[in-house]
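Notes to self after the Tuesday call (sharing in case useful).
The group wants a holo model before anyone commits to mutagenesis around the pocket. I volunteered. Ligand is FE2/S2 (inorganic) cluster. Logging inputs and output together so the record is complete.
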Amino acid sequence: MKEEIPPSEREATSLRLSRRNFIKGVIGGGVAASSAHYLFRASSLLGESSAPGDRLLTLNVNGQLRRADVMKQETLAWTLRYKLGLTGTKLGCDRAECGACTVLIDDVPHYSCSVLTHTVRNKKVVTIEGLANPDGTLHPVQQGVIDEQGFQCAFCMSGFILSAVGYLKTHPNPTRAELAHGLSGNLCRCQDYDKILTAMMRGAENLRKVSRA
Amino acid sequence: MAVIRDIMPAFQLLQPGTVADAQKLLAQHDADAWIMAGGMDSFDWLKDRIKRPKVLVDLSGIEELRGIRATADGVEIGAMTRLSEVVGHPLIKEKYGLLAQAAELVASPQIRNQGTLGGNVSQDARCWYYRAGWPCYRAGGNICYADTPVGRNREHAILHAERCVAVNPSDTAPALIALDAKFVVQTPKGRQVMDAEHYFVGPEIDITRMNILRPGFLLMAIQIPSTWAGAQFYFEKMRDRNVWDFPLLNVASAMKLSRSNIQDIRIAVNAAAARPLRLKAVEDAVRGRECSPATGEAAGKLAVQGAVPLQFNAYKIPLMRNLVKRAIGGVQEAAWAS
Ligand SMILES: Cc1cc2nc3c(=O)[nH]c(=O)nc-3n(C[C@H](O)[C@H](O)[C@H](O)COP(=O)(O)OP(=O)(O)OC[C@H]3O[C@@H](n4cnc5c(N)ncnc54)[C@H](O)[C@@H]3O)c2cc1C
Ligand code: FES
Ligand code: FES
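Result:
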């Protein structure tokens, strides 16, 4: 389902407003007296599901607005993989200890296994599926991987690429050591670090060429 | 321990936009509420089903808790400021580099992008047994599983252990103590400002908590006075891997020299005890003395007085002695004389 971006902003604003109403409702009378779709009873207990509308979110993922029914306790990795079908994001440890699940949230690398989906309502999420141009041209960092054949099994690859893309946004011209530090939150169980780093350095170079052009 | 790769048990998620709203929600839900900042300490508890809060109060939408501001006398850092913002902030780097160094060594880039300064100083112990849900002292029981002849206690305390031998694992806490930071805490009864070292508590005061926070309390901000701005700083952290791993021990010091003499100093270590330790005896002993390897060596010896090793952590005693020595006397190649 594709929409234009502007409605997202309207949507986001209305969500913010209804959220504020909701909190007021909770504080005021113990019951959220709002007609917005965020309505749910303040007394809703553990395990008891709240009003269905309360879980419906519109997320900005890879520049598209995607609607999903998301539980409060659901992580972003879970939503991306199992609700939105974006299985390029991998789950390794589910404990913020491997980096396989790395995605960009407002351009900054995060472990999506350790982010609640409901906290990214008004943010922009980018996954590996969102890097290439719609015409199929790969992102310069992806191209770097092809150029250098940087991975073995590549389970860790999407996480590494998103870490690199995020890091390069703020450090476009890193030394090899600096880039290694920038990518240090990602593990590779095939231990292919040297080639991965070479590929990412090539990606950085490709990116500089593209942005100069 | 089995790693459960399922969805966390359900909770209510409340996302207040102001401190006032947060306080009301916390008052309303009292002990049922769990405060979530970046969540990097919280999620393990929730995913492992060790802690089962009914309500999560997410502070990430509260603007007033974020940001780094210059004040008349130093700098104020909102509790919700991300560690990577602390690391990259020009004022922190230029004048309070000790904190930037410490924050930079926390965990991994992604964790620093999400973990907050307030969460880092408020995080819970990482003792294996406690985190795995064993009913130990810290969890309200009446045994310590780590303090037994076969307990896995390589990471545990060498100082001030009392029944519980877990340590405080924060890297930024000792840096903040060395910088003489003040913690601003909102309690249901009003605002309190306290010295960094008084924010933390050991098992002799409360065995189930690492700090003074109780239900309804909010850490608002951390203020660093200009007293130590631009002083001579030293931070060193020992860990097994250079990423992710918590400190086996760390040291943070701020020193003012007049010629080659130590005019004044503050020094603290963490991961040695259940709370970060300010080494006051060391400060008093070296003040006025020459800043030299010999002074460092004497300081190191003094620092570990009274240390008691467990089965697998005796290495921490020479480690702490050496880190204190290096912080004061500089990094030397030579090994210990004795
Ligand atoms: C794999 C891994 C490795 C790590 N390695 C290190 C390391 O090497 N060094 C290190 O220092 N840390 C390390 N950490 C800990 C991490 O840095 C901290 O967990 C993180 O900084 C906590 O911040 P947070 O905002 O994510 O905390 P949260 O999980 O949101 O909060 C932590 C605790 O503090 C409470 N809290 C948070 N903010 C407030 C507030 N404003 N008022 C009242 N209560 C509050 C919460 O209720 C919770 O109990 C590691 C964590 C992980 C997962
Ligand atoms: S799956 Fe998220 S860091 Fe490993
Ligand atoms: S290439 Fe196999 S995990 Fe990295």
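Two things stood out.
Strands of chain A lie at 56-61, 64-69, 102-105, 108-111, 124-126.
Residues 5-29 of chain A form the longest helix (25 residues).
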